[in-house]
Design a protein that fits this description.
Blueprint lengths: L12 E6 L2 H10 L4 E7 L2 E5 L4 E6 L16 E4 L3 H13 L4 E7 L5 E6 L5 E6 L1 H4 L14
Length: 146
């Protein structure tokens, strides 16, 4: 099994091509609770959930992203527990978020549902036993090697 690179803390940054930065920014703020950390111009915005960073880049002429501008299948947000996954699905439905695949428990003990952002980017809301219990942050001094 390959060894993780020193200092690598995981995939915490995703960049999406979107049709309308303002519309997508509102979705990620209002639905997923992310905050804008930087917006250098009207066609680009950077949001954060704390441990994660999301870049939104508006496609030329407001055209919808396509195979030429994006090959992303889906992105995922880790959720603390199974009950919260179910609660989020209900909350999203109440807010008219498109649900792609409803809540499901998986054989590996995980549970998830899939929804879509305003540009149709598929988002998995996922409880995963190993990932959901992790504490994200720098390693403690006692666990570092000199």
């Amino acid at each position: 099994m390959p060894k993780a690179l020193s200092g690598l803390m995981g995939m915490r940054h995703i960049a999406l091509n979107v049709k309308d930065v303002e519309r997508s920014k509102a979705f990620y703020q209002d639905i997923l609770g992310m905050e804008v950390v930087w917006q250098p111009d009207p066609r680009n915005a950077y949001l954060s959930s704390g441990p994660d960073n999301l870049a939104l880049h508006e496609t030329p002429d407001g055209r919808a992203p396509n195979a030429a501008t994006s090959t992303l299948d889906h992105l995922g947000f880790i959720v603390s527990d199974v009950d919260r996954v179910q609660e989020l699905e209900a909350e999203f439905r109440a807010r008219d978020v498109t649900i792609i695949k409803p809540f499901k428990r998986h054989r590996d003990g995980s549970a998830s549902f899939y929804c879509a952002d305003p540009d149709g980017v598929v988002i998995q809301m996922l409880y995963e036993p190993t990932l959901s219990g992790q504490k994200i942050g720098p390693a403690s001094a006692s666990s570092r090697t000199p």
